[in-house]
Amino acid sequence: MRVTFIGDSITDAGRDRADPGSFGDGYVSLLAPGLIAEGAIVRNLGVAGDRVADLEARWSVDLLPTRPELLTVYVGINEVWRRFDSDDPTPTGVFEQTYRGLLERAVQTCAPRLVLMEPYLLPVRPEQRAWLDELADKRAAVARLAAEFDALRVPLHDVLAQAAEGRDPAGLAPDGVHPTPAGSRLIAGAWTSAVRH
């Protein structure tokens, strides 16, 4: 089986982009050994900083040639973050429409089983609480797309928020977004629960 992961820095996780066999040190690196042991060809196509518009720009060159049979897409938090740190918003309607176009192209090209990862945020600074409404809009868009495309949805925000209850969330994501090894294990576990159920 050809298994491809595409998304932003949480998927990228420091991979060597010149090495097709590099998985970085995040959740993909935790999932890859088991998948490979089952005979899968695994590719990590995450790029730090990517938004859905960036995925669109490289979809035909990076993603479609891998012809995935199982495709995981993880995007959305940079749309939220850039609104607040750069005054560069991505309206949810635009996010959803662009994302839908990518999924349609994937389905038409190689008909993969789809896994959509929901963006999450664990506020570690008071001002990040103001991001949660925007995040909720992006999460809702991912949920709608998962239903529309009969995709598996991985509810990461709920998983991470529940894990952070009663503890310092920085232990899971020091900046609220980028996971520690413990956070990556939770993400990998949530993916596995969704895909293997």
From TrEMBL:
Keywords: Hydrolase. Pfam families: Lipase_GDSL_2. GO terms for molecular function: phosphatidylcholine lysophospholipase activity. The keyword Hydrolase applies. Residues 5-186 form the SGNH hydrolase-type esterase domain. PANTHER family: SGNH HYDROLASE-TYPE ESTERASE DOMAIN-CONTAINING PROTEIN, THIOESTERASE 1/PROTEASE 1/LYSOPHOSPHOLIPASE L1. This is GDSL-like Lipase/Acylhydrolase. The lineage of its organism: Bacteria, Bacillati, Actinomycetota, Actinomycetes, Micrococcales.
